[in-house]
Design a protein that fits this description.
single chain; alpha+beta; two-stranded antiparallel sheet; two-stranded antiparallel ribbon; 5 helices
């Protein structure tokens, strides 16, 4: 989950570039609410999300969990928040099937 402020978006872009991740978008894309950008990195997908309008990023950040990426601890959205975000995405008419699949998997893992 990315805080959709232009200053933060620029930092994210710098981190991705420094990690040799090929990005096909610019910082202004991440500086908007309700974005999902999928980036292919080696054998996995990295989903960059910005919260819907009305969702407080600071609250999400406060409930984040940490994962290790390239030997660094990185805060990632917590499971309950991820389910809530996926539910919002899945309810939209133009929903990507991936959101519905992700939501189903998250609920199965209870």
């Amino acid at each position: 989950m990315i805080d959709p402020q232009i200053e933060n978006a620029r930092k994210v872009m710098s981190a991705l570039t420094a990690s040799h991740i090929d990005v096909q978008f610019d910082a202004s894309t991440l500086a908007n609410p309700a974005k999902l950008i999928r980036v292919k990195v080696l054998h996995y997908w990295l989903d960059l999300l910005t919260p819907e309008g009305g969702i407080d990023f600071a609250e999400l950040r406060g409930r984040a969990v940490f994962a290790t990426m390239n030997e660094m601890l990185v805060p990632v959205v917590g499971r309950d928040d991820l389910i809530a975000l996926k539910e919002v995405a899945a309810s939209k008419p133009d929903c990507d099937a991936k959101h519905k699949q992700d939501l189903k998997r998250l609920r199965l893992r209870g």
